[in-house]
Write a structure and sequence with these properties.
Blueprint: H1 5-17, H2 19-48, E1 59-67, H3 81-90, E2 94-107, E3 112-119, H4 123-126, E4 134-135, E5 151-155, H5 156-162, E6 173-176, E7 179-187, E8 199-202, H6 206-209, E9 226-231, H7 237-257, E10 266-272, H8 285-318, H9 320-328, H10 333-370, H11 385-411, H12 415-419, H13 426-463, E11 473-476, H14 487-502, E12 507-513, E13 524-526, E14 537-544, H15 548-552, E15 556-559, E16 574-579, H16 580-586, E17 596-598, E18 604-611, E19 626-630, E20 639-644, H17 648-662, E21 671-672, H18 673-716, H19 718-726, H20 731-767, H21 780-805, H22 810-815
Parallel strand pairs: 3-8, 5-7, 14-19, 16-18
Antiparallel strand pairs: 1-9, 1-10, 2-3, 2-9, 4-7, 5-8, 6-7, 11-20, 11-21, 12-20, 13-14, 15-18, 16-19, 17-18
Helix pairs in contact: 1-10, 2-8, 2-10, 2-11, 3-7, 8-11, 8-13, 8-18, 8-20, 10-11, 13-18, 13-20, 13-21, 14-17, 18-21, 20-21
């Protein structure tokens, strides 16, 4: 038998003889294991679980890839309406198929945006949810073509947070994008349908919510629907893939035959269980993202293990006489190591059981910090078999890691010296304590650097000078039907709106821009006259109105801005304003005025001005090459912006009242660009708070560990200090020697920490390369702040043990000799 009853009883007695040390070990491991288990519970629910708990093996989600067709083809995307209808009508391997798409709407009652799902009426049934909390779900007739029934089902978080859990909500009318929708039911918050804080409406209402600006429901060229279904009994996913491939090949032929121009459309599909990690577009990204999240938490666990190692090592040294006696009585070293490992495992097991509670509470704390509106979903994030397996794995890791040093000390124990009551760990103590201190400093540095980087991001957003006015410039979001049959009415609306806004006291100017600030824009190929297609350089093209530069207060470096006499017509000579970055790219050291550039539509533009570079795509990073072209007013494109003086809140209300008087369906609130930046910063603050808390726990563990390691080392070197003092060393030199030794260990730990942190920063920068935020390789300021903080707290942890070493009584320390 690998572990007998006597070994187990010995372990229990060892724990009971040192309750304080055992409690410290359990507490440290509980923090390390609990944080890992709690965060993994959240990641498991978000990324690894399928979106249904009702017979998940029969659930299947389908992803298409259209090749040789539209811009972006060749990537996994959504389905067209016709393709979904063909699957629903002809697929015999699927018992049922549901479709949905995400959509942003404004709830007039809350004056805030709500995530919205446009769904087919069998959506809830396919996802395994047949019992509403209140009312009913959508009826089949409410999703028929041409019905456009204005009904909605609310998610439980929306019902509780925005409507105070009103039990009489069913039958009430709410307004989405200014349109009345009748609430017919409440869907339970369920991790099987991780739709946080949203609303559900029939997918046939898409044109209503967009005021007819788009209508993918009837457009065969617009992929927009996600599809999931349930396997019919007796069929497998392989059968489904084969059948759906045949159906979509027929759709490909039908599509090409219906077109005047022949398109070589070819569709392939991939089937998954619906979990986010199996989504083809994110299959490679999610594991890396999870590794970056769980990696720092494993460092916290290792820090906790270092503390526990020190506890066990101290206990082993105190009991070296007892261990020597056991060896002398014939207990083999292998059994002794087994007993020490069992002691570590028992400690880790107790910590693991405590961590189960943290696995429930940590997601709650994270959600409350990130978004309090999601709190209703958290109680349903129960740990499943995957979480328990992960928990068991880290308990095993903690057991082994924390017992390695005590096992090494017991294996190398000099039995003769220990039986005489003398110190037998002299050769081990220096190397082991140095390794523990270096390891704790290195791991703490990585976490502290991450905390500094993320804690700095909100301030980076709000303190950044983007190169244009943000506090006195309002964006006015509008949803207008600009279809050909409604163009005359839309033009009249814009004319009336502009005229009324200009009469508001404090309004200085109006402008339009097709690219929204702080949203990455796709580049286009721009070339010189002597260059052919494919030989140009990438540049972002922004269509703006004549007052754009004055409205945004963008400086002109040379030349002029657009004039009212300039034309945007393709039949006349057109002009362009370019950025400094484009000048450096195309004409370094030359005068750009009068130069010709050619856009992808083969139109030629004469450069009449150079505008200062801005930071409108990525926070804190200068934009690349930009071309500003004159907006065609008849095209009705772009976002409306208003430059004003005075109070932003008063101006926002005044403009909103004007918009609502002209069109009651408009529900989007105007806001300054600064408020958009502040909103982004607020979201980042929640994330930064979580990371700072984790890093603070890590630093606390590290300081405690450094204190424990040095205390152990000082206790082990008591006789050495006594001898040095007898030989003439004063207390200051002893104090200095301990701090210098600790300082060298801290320096080595910081070097190793930089070596660990830099690849992590590079990996995270790669993952976020398309986001508005950027991370620099070898961020000197972040590393400097982390080094300063860590050195200060580490020296503080060293002070007390070093001071205690100076109080050693030489006579008492040498008496045993």
């Amino acid at each position: 038998m690998w572990i007998d009853r006597q070994d187990f009883l010995y372990t229990i007695r060892s724990v009971r003889r040192a309750p304080l040390l055992s409690s410290i070990a359990v507490l440290a491991l509980s923090l390390g294991i609990g944080l890992n288990a709690g965060v993994f519970t959240l990641l498991n629910a978000m990324f690894l679980n399928p979106p249904t708990q009702t017979d998940p093996f029969r659930f299947v989600q389908v992803y298409p890839r259209y090749e040789g067709w539209f811009t972006g083809a060749g990537q996994y995307s959504a389905f067209t309406t016709k393709d979904y209808e063909a699957i629903r009508a002809h697929a015999t391997t699927l018992a049922e198929a549901a479709a949905w798409t995400t959509h942003g709407t404004i709830a007039e009652e809350a004056h805030r945006s709500l995530p919205t799902l446009l769904v087919t009426c069998n959506y809830f049934h396919v996802f395994g949810n047949d019992q509403p909390l209140l009312g009913r779900f959508l009826n089949p007739n409410e999703c028929e073509r041409g019905a456009a029934v204005q009904v909605t089902v609310l998610s439980e978080p929306v019902w509780r947070n925005l409507f105070a859990g009103d039990p009489k909500i069913v039958g009430t009318i709410i307004h989405l994008n200014g349109l009345p929708f009748t609430v017919v039911g409440i869907v339970r918050s369920d991790i099987a349908n991780f739709m946080a804080g949203g609303v559900f409406v029939p997918f046939t209402a898409e044109a209503l919510l967009d005021n007819g600006t788009t209508n993918p429901l009837t457009n065969p060229d617009t992929p927009w629907l996600q599809i999931a279904g349930r396997l019919r009994p007796g069929y497998s996913r392989v059968d489904v893939k084969a059948e759906l491939t045949t159906i979509l090949r027929n759709q490909d032929r039908a599509y090409m035959e219906s077109k005047v121009t022949s398109f070589n459309r070819k569709t392939s599909i991939e089937l998954t269980n619906g979990s986010f990690i199996q989504t083809p577009a994110y299959r490679d990204t999610i594991p890396a993202l999870m590794a970056l999240i769980l990696g720092p938490l494993l460092l916290v666990l290792l820090l906790a293990c270092c503390n526990v190692t020190m506890v066990f090592l101290s206990r082993a040294v105190v009991r070296r006489g007892e261990i020597a006696v056991r060896l002398a009585l014939g207990v083999g070293r292998a059994r002794l190591l087994r007993m020490l490992l069992l002691e570590a495992f028992l400690t880790a097991l107790i910590a693991g059981l405590i961590s189960l509670a943290l696995a429930y509470y940590v997601p709650q704390m994270i959600m409350n910090a990130a978004n309090p509106n999601l709190a209703a979903l958290v109680p349903l994030l129960h740990p499943n078999w995957r979480v328990f397996g992960y928990l068991a794995a880290i308990v095993a890791v903690a057991s082994v890691v924390s017992s390695l040093a005590p096992m090494h000390a017991a294996w190398k124990l000099d039995m003769i010296t220990a039986l005489k009551g003398r110190e037998g760990t002299a050769t081990m103590r220096s190397r082991m304590t140095s390794i523990l201190i270096v390891a704790q400093i290195a791991m703490s540095f990585v976490l502290l650097t991450a905390a500094v980087l993320f804690a700095r991001m909100p301030a980076m957003v709000t303190a950044m000078d983007p190169g244009f006015e943000t506090r006195q410039t309002l964006s006015v979001p509008l949803v207008i039907d600009t279809s050909p049959q409604n163009r005359t009415k839309a033009l009249g609306f814009y004319r009336d709106l502009e005229a009324r806004i200009r009469t508001i006291p404090g309004v200085q100017s109006l402008a339009y821009e097709t690219l929204n600030p702080f949203h990455p824009a796709p580049p286009s190929e721009v070339r010189l006259p002597q260059q052919g297609a494919g030989q140009g350089q990438p540049a972002v093209i922004d269509h703006v109105s004549t007052d754009f530069f004055s409205t945004f207060a963008i400086r002109m470096m040379t030349g002029r801005t657009f004039l009212s006499s300039d034309s945007s017509s393709a039949n006349t000579s057109s002009v362009a304003v370019v950025s400094q970055a484009l000048v450096k790219q195309f004409w370094p050291g030359e005068d750009p005025l009068g130069k010709i550039i050619i856009t992808p539509d083969d139109r030629r533009y004469t450069v009449v001005g150079v505008a200062a570079d801005t930071r409108s795509e990525r926070f804190g990073v200068l934009d690349g090459s930009r071309i500003y072209l004159l907006r065609d007013p008849a095209a009705l494109e772009g976002q409306l912006y208003v430059r004003f003086t005075g109070s932003s809140s008063i101006m926002e209300k005044a403009i909103f009242d004007v918009v609502r008087n002209l069109d009651r369906t408009q529900a989007n609130l105007p806001q300054t660009i600064w408020e958009e930046m502040e909103s982004n910063a607020e979201n980042l603050r929640a994330l930064a708070q979580i990371i700072v808390v984790i890093a603070s726990i890590a630093v606390l563990l590290a300081v405690t560990g450094v204190y424990g390691v040095l205390s152990f080392a000082v206790n082990q070197r008591t006789r050495e200090f006594g001898i040095r003092m007898v030989l003439g060393a004063n207390r200051i030199s002893v104090f200095r020697s301990i701090l210098l030794r600790g300082g060298r260990q801290i320096a080595v730990g910081l070097v190793f920490g930089i070596v660990l942190a830099e690849p992590s920063i590079l990996a995270f920068a790669h993952l976020t390369r398309n986001s508005p935020f950027s991370f620099r390789s070898f961020d000197v300021s972040a590393f400097g702040i982390a080094v300063a903080l860590l050195v200060c707290v580490s020296l503080a942890g060293m002070y007390v043990p070093a001071l205690r070493a100076t109080q050693v009584d030489p006579v008492n320390s040498l008496r045993a000799e």
